[in-house]
Every structure is written in C-alpha cells, then in structure tokens.
From TrEMBL:
Ranges for domain MITD1 C-terminal phospholipase D-like: 75-222
CDD domains referenced in this protein's UniProt entry, alphabetically: MIT_C
Organism: Elachura formosa (spotted wren-babbler)
Domain of life assignment: Eukaryota
Pfam families: MIT (PF04212), MIT_C (PF16565)
Any one cellular-component term (Gene Ontology): midbody
Protein name as annotated: MITD1 protein
Residue ranges of domain MIT in the record: 3-54
UniProt GO BP: midbody abscission
C-alpha cells in the first residue's frame, strides 16, 4: 500500500500537481515506516528503508503556496482553508497565536474562533489526539475570562479523546498552525480573519463560508518530518 501510494505521488509530481504529490509522498512514507516496524525479516527491513530513503529524497522539494483573501471575500471557512492538509495521519496540531484571549472585542471573537477550529479537527477526517496552543495572557480582568474559556474548551475536547496543552508566552509574535504530517500554514491575521457578523440572526453568523473576511494573506509551506526508522 505504501509503494502504491508513492507511485501515485510520482505520477502527480510529473503532472506538476505538487501539493497533492507531497501529501501522497508523506502518506506512502508513513505506511512504509509502519511496515518496517511490523516485520522481523531483516532483508525486508533493508528493502523498505532503501525505498523510504529514495522517496524521502523525491519528496524533499520546497513547497510554498500563497492565498490572498480579499476584503469582504466569502468562502474561506476553516474547513475550506485547512481540510486538504488534514489527512488521516494527522494526530498532532500546534497553534501559535498571541491573541487567543478575548471573547468579545469591537470586531473579534478570538476564543470562539479557536473553538470553531477545534471543532473542525474533531470532525475529521484526521485523527487528532493532541492540540498544542501557545498564546499570550489577556490583560487585566480579561485574564480570568480567558482562562475559564480555555479550560472549558480543554474539558470539552477531552470528551472526544483530544488533549489540549496550553502554554503562555509574553514574547510570541508569529501566527502559525502546524500539523505533524509536515504542513505549516501562516495566516497574517491568525484565526481572526472573519468580520463580526451583522447580527445573531444574520446570514454568516453560523456558517463561516458565508461570513465576510478581512483582507489577509495565507502562506502554506511543507516541512519534511521523517520519523526515526
């Protein structure tokens, strides 16, 4: 199955469908790694390791895609933006964003946005078991509200077998999301690229595909994460 997946990756690579080929390379390599662990036949282990080295070399090209979200554009829900990178092998996610803190601002619902992002991960098709959040403390009276909301999200995720690890940093500035299949997404505004809905009963309040966006840029990269053999 691993070799078949990588052959598909080679075909996609030749067709200049680089994003799809990288996903297939990664999945194929992971399947071959599982085969290495499962077999006791040293000859087979050697053969699989040779193939892994070969396919890792093929998949080691740099990848960068940029998406520009225009002011008031719609159709950019978290599902639409992230789903193609959330393959079944994704089990761990890192979210670095200094502003996952205030529930209500003039135009922001940052903790609610993080909750929606977590809901997307729970729905799959990935099998996420751990989410790491690195953010900054809210200021003043907002800190207790921030901590209460994050703890509630943490408890709720545990009901679905997902662990949320929360760390706070006063020096964090970058906003990026990483998956353990090698994909990294950097959004200029972090998860906060949706505009405030016009009302609680207006179109786009519940369906983020219909919610107008702020102008921002999304950069997608792939970093090779090869497990030890």
């Amino acid at each position: 199955a691993g070799a078949q997946t990588v052959r598909r990756a080679v075909q996609l690579d030749a067709a200049a469908r680089f994003q799809e080929s990288l996903v297939c390379y990664q999945e194929g390599i992971d399947l071959l790694l599982q085969a290495v662990k499962a077999t006791t036949d040293e000859a087979k282990k050697h053969h699989y390791r040779q193939k892994i080295s070969e396919f890792t070399f093929l998949s080691d090209g740099k990848y960068h895609k940029q998406i520009r979200i225009e002011e008031n554009a719609t159709g950019f829900s978290y599902e639409k933006l992230f789903q193609e990178y959330l393959t079944e092998i994704v089990s761990e996610v890192w979210v670095e964003d200094p502003y996952i803190r205030q529930v209500h601002q003039a135009s922001r619902y940052l903790l609610y946005n993080f909750l929606r992002f977590c809901e997307m991960l729970v729905k799959g098709p990935c099998k996420v078991k751990t989410i790491h959040l690195i953010t900054s403390y809210d200021k003043g009276m907002g800190r207790s509200q921030q901590m209460s909301a994050l703890e509630e999200i943490k408890r709720s995720l545990s009901n679905y077998g997902v662990t949320l690890n929360i760390d706070f940093s006063s020096s964090i500035h970058d906003r990026e999301i990483r998956f353990n299949n090698g994909w990294m997404i950097k959004i200029g505004r972090g998860l906060d690229y949706f505009k405030k809905p016009q009302g609680h009963f207006s179109i786009g309040y519940s369906d983020f595909d219909l919610r107008p966006c702020h102008e921002t840029t999304v950069d997608v990269f792939h970093t090779k994460h090869t497990k030890k053999m």
